[in-house]
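Batch job 17 of 40 flagged for manual review because the log was empty.
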Amino acid sequence: MEFVERDGVLCATDAFQDMQQAGLVHFSDFMEFPGGARIVHKRGRSVFRFEIGDRAFYLKRNRLHRTELFKQLSRGKLPPRSARQEWTSIQAVSQAGIPTVKPVAFGERIFFGIETASFTVTEELYGAHPLDELVYDKFNGPEKFHEKRALIRQLAGLARHLHGAGMNHQDFYLNHFFLGEDNELFLLDLQRVQRRACTPEYSIIKDLAQLAFSARRFPFITRSDHLRFLLAYLGESRLSRGSRRLLTRVGRKAERIARHDIKLTARRRARGEMK
């Protein structure tokens, strides 16, 4: 994919005219763009969907938030460069052969090594929908038994591929997988992806536990389904001592995620980020 750079904004050449048509050329244009429908609003981060002609895009904006800055500094870290992390991760995941979104535009403002503002634009996955919205309709019921097993193998294969490529997601929940009309599985929301020569076990456990936690609200996803997923992920036909150990650690981590989710939901409601 080819890109053109202007005023510190990197834009895909095939979308440059579309962005110009919407008045999106300079960094400030993207950061102050008033159009579109707001999809996400969190502390220091927002996501908007907008259309240009027959194309649809998602604009994700990040602004340095004082609370997040102090929280990271108290841990001896600098705040992450969110847009650059997502931009490079999209390309790394795509190069690894894992379907994901198409990158359209990127820009950031840096002050003494700290990202003060940034954005990414990605194109919509036409005809694809969040997996957690499709599970009930497509995979619930005895007649969907084979489709559900096929999906479990597909999820396990994607997870194994991601981890085998030295990456872990850190937000590996069902709503970050999209399923296309031809049952192609896409992985989204890559702003926290970590890349190493080899994915450490604790990162693998975190990803698998997040996926297990997000599947809990679907009563027809059974313990046997979780076992099938793990065996498919490991490439085993039956549980070994090592896979039993991994299953136990994933289960414990999923319990901790559930407890943390309750606290996080309460804080977000108090901040007015969700109802």
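Reviewer: the log was empty due to a logging misconfiguration, but the result itself is present. The longest strand covers residues 102-111. Unflagging and moving on to job 18.
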